[in-house]
Design brief:
Elements lengths: L1 E12 L6 E6 L2 E4 L4 E12 L4 E3 L1 E7 L4 E6 L4 E3 L6 E12 L3 E9 L2 E12 L12
Parallel strand pairs: 3-11
Antiparallel strand pairs: 1-2, 1-4, 4-9, 5-8, 6-7, 6-10, 10-11
Length: 135
């Protein structure tokens, strides 16, 4: 059972408590031109009600073209019981975004889709300079 699936700028884990802080949770990105490259973002997932060996995969899908742009797999983990809360976080670097539109991060567990998180990518509209006045 998925409790949270978020995209953010950074995940920081406290060395003493193990608590995670999610910095800059977002649902939209803006770019001045395309194709665009987003230098770094993090995916965070919080799961419970699982038991056994799990392999996870994170995919980035261009929804408009129904095309997988990238994928990655953290190491497999053993979840000891259904009351265990499991947190996953992964940093993605140089995320390529070919056009403005909707993109979707997908989380798969043992090859089954368990979560999706859509983000919208918009083009920044540069302000037009005012017309020059003739004197």
């Amino acid at each position: 059972m998925l409790k949270a699936f978020l995209v953010c700028d950074q995940v920081i884990q406290d060395a003493q408590t193990g608590k995670k802080s999610l910095i800059g949770v977002f649902h939209e990105l803006k770019a001045s031109r395309f194709p665009a490259i987003h230098p770094s973002l993090w995916i965070y997932a919080n799961l419970t009600d699982a038991h056994g060996q799990y392999t996870f995969e994170i995919r980035l899908l261009d929804v408009g073209r129904n095309e997988v742009l990238g994928r990655g797999a953290p190491p497999a983990i053993e979840i000891p019981g259904p009351l265990q809360v499991t947190e996953l976080s992964a940093q993605l670097r140089n995320v390529q975004l070919p056009t403005a539109g909707t993109y979707e991060f997908q989380l798969l567990a043992n090859d089954q889709l368990v979560a999706t998180k859509a983000i919208r990518v918009a083009e920044i509209q540069e302000p037009q300079p005012p017309p020059s006045e003739s004197t």
